[in-house]
Each structure stands twice: as structure tokens, then as C-alpha cells.
Specification:
15 strands, tt1808, chain A, alpha+beta, six-stranded mixed β-sheet, 2 domains
């Protein structure tokens, strides 16, 4: 990656999230980037691009990984041989590729039921049917505010926010352009709205959290 000499951190006071402009490319002046810029970055760091703004992703901790892997495992076991597919980060999702193409995210876990969205072999083009984000202590508002609003805007039908600290999951179901939210606790099973007949066992998801 071509880099600047300075590292800039901009605190978004409206969300509490830290937008990190660290060693950004110099060729797209003005601070606005698209997917074409994103794929040219070669600094071996994980980035997300939301409305043209880059966000540097921090390394996940143990609890994050334990919850993520169990959710992915349960989904994979259920979906094997079916028309829907489960993917885990890092896996690029271009949420608005057909318009501005300035938003590329990497949900922790996602389910896609339309094979055409993965035809390019590089990631997902369009909204996944299910997106799951596991909160990180360093920047929970990135998922709770910024990505919540973006997923709602582009039509992600079901969006989960998994909180390993409280051992809860906020399930957001899209209806008439807005999310209806229900909170599930560690002893419950969550029916997946977009996958008829399947539930996730949260006692297993949080079993190894400490």
C-alpha cells in the first residue's frame, strides 16, 4: 500500500466509534474511497469501507472467536447440502456494488442463499440474507450503530449482534424497511427467520466464554 507519513485517528462523537485513518493510500485525495481503491491496498491489514470511509479492524480476542466458530459450525452442519451457504470472516461483502460501490464489510458470519451473489468467487455482491457480528470490547458501536444502520439501509433481512460479555444476542428482523429487535439469553435457542426449521443453541455458543 502507498502510505502517508502520518497516522490519523478521528473520533466519531456521534457514535463513540473510532474511525481509524492509519497509513491510508495517497492516491484518492479527499478521504473518500471505493471498492476499486480498497482492493489495491496491500498492507496486510483488515479494513472495512463504509460510505467511502475506511475503518481498520482490530484483531479479535478469544471470546469473540469461540462464539463465532460455534455459530459458524451450527450453521454449516444445518446448511450442508442445501441451497444456502455460510461464510466466515474475512470475506468481502460489497453492499452497494450496483451503485456507488463504496461500502465493503466483513461480517463475522453470514449466510447467502442466492448463488449469483458469489459468482465472482471473490466475495458477496449484494446484501447477505443473514449477517452476524460478534462485539469486540474495543469498538462495540461500530456494529451497534454504523453497521446496524447500513445493514438496514441495504436490506439485510436478518442481523444478529452477539455480545460475549453479557452472553446475549440481539436479533434484528427487517420489516417494512426497519428492524424489529428481540434479545435472547444464554440458555435460549434462536429460530433463524431466514432459515425455516433451524435454531441456534446459545448454550453451546456461550459454553466456552470466560
Amino acid at each position: 500500500m502507498k502510505t502517508t507519513n502520518d497516522t490519523n485517528k478521528i473520533n466519531d462523537t456521534s457514535t463513540g466509534d473510532m474511525q481509524v485513518n492509519e497509513a491510508l493510500p495517497t492516491y484518492a485525495g479527499g478521504g473518500y474511497y471505493t471498492y476499486a481503491d480498497y482492493v489495491a491496498w496491500d498492507d496486510d491489514k483488515r479494513w472495512e469501507l463504509i460510505d467511502g470511509k475506511p475503518y481498520l479492524m482490530s484483531a479479535p480476542n478469544r471470546n469473540h472467536q469461540m462464539a463465532l466458530m460455534e455459530i459458524g459450525y451450527q450453521l454449516y452442519a444445518f446448511l450442508k447440502g442445501k441451497k444456502c451457504y455460510v461464510y466466515m470472516a474475512p470475506f468481502d461483502v460489497r453492499l452497494n456494488a450496483d451503485t456507488l460501490d463504496d461500502t465493503v464489510v466483513q461480517p463475522d458470519v453470514l449466510v447467502v442463499c442466492d448463488e449469483k451473489k458469489t459468482e465472482d468467487g471473490k466475495g458477496v455482491v449484494g446484501a447477505p440474507d443473514l449477517a452476524v457480528e460478534v462485539l469486540s470490547p474495543s469498538n462495540p458501536n461500530h456494529d451497534r450503530v454504523i453497521k446496524f444502520n447500513k445493514y438496514r439501509e441495504v436490506g439485510v433481512r436478518e442481523f444478529w449482534i452477539v455480545d460475549p460479555m453479557s452472553k446475549t444476542v440481539a436479533v434484528n428482523i427487517l420489516s417494512d424497511g426497519n428492524y424489529t429487535t428481540r434479545i435472547y439469553g444464554a440458555a435460549e435457542r434462536i429460530p433463524i427467520h431466514v432459515l425455516d426449521g433451524f435454531t441456534i443453541d446459545l448454550s453451546e455458543v456461550f459454553a466456552e466464554i470466560r
